[in-house]
Amino acid sequence: MAFGTQDEADEVMNEINMTPLVDVMLVLLIIFIITIPVMKHSVNVDLPRATNQPQDIKPETVRLSVDAKGVYFWNEAMIDDASLPARLKEQAAKNPQPDLHIRGDKDVRYERVAQAMAAAQQAGVKKIGFITEPKGN
Description:
Number of helices: 4
Distance between the termini: 98 Å
Strand content: 15-25%
Radius of gyration: 40 Å
CATH architecture of the domain at 69-130: 2-Layer Sandwich
Structural class: alpha/beta
Order of helices and strands: HHEEEHEHE
């Protein structure tokens, strides 16, 4: 039995293997050599300036209601048919333009609601919405 060979195998290695370290350093050097010229040649772009100020301009809401008899109400105030187009033109000229919410009674003739929509379109109102109530169970 040879006990001398066992002691030599357990001996600690005192030297650092430099080959993997040199390989990693060469790879990093090649990467830097390739990427540095790319970073120097950038395109000059004139970027827009932005502010962090929120815009709190909210357009007002105009409620145009039509009751069961076909009478128009401008924000709960009764209005006749002749003055409706003038009021709509006045609102369409505002900046920002207000939203027009049309509330039609379920028993009114559709013709009256269509007349209000046509008058709003001719006046130049761009945002028209309809107010409804959810169906009850």
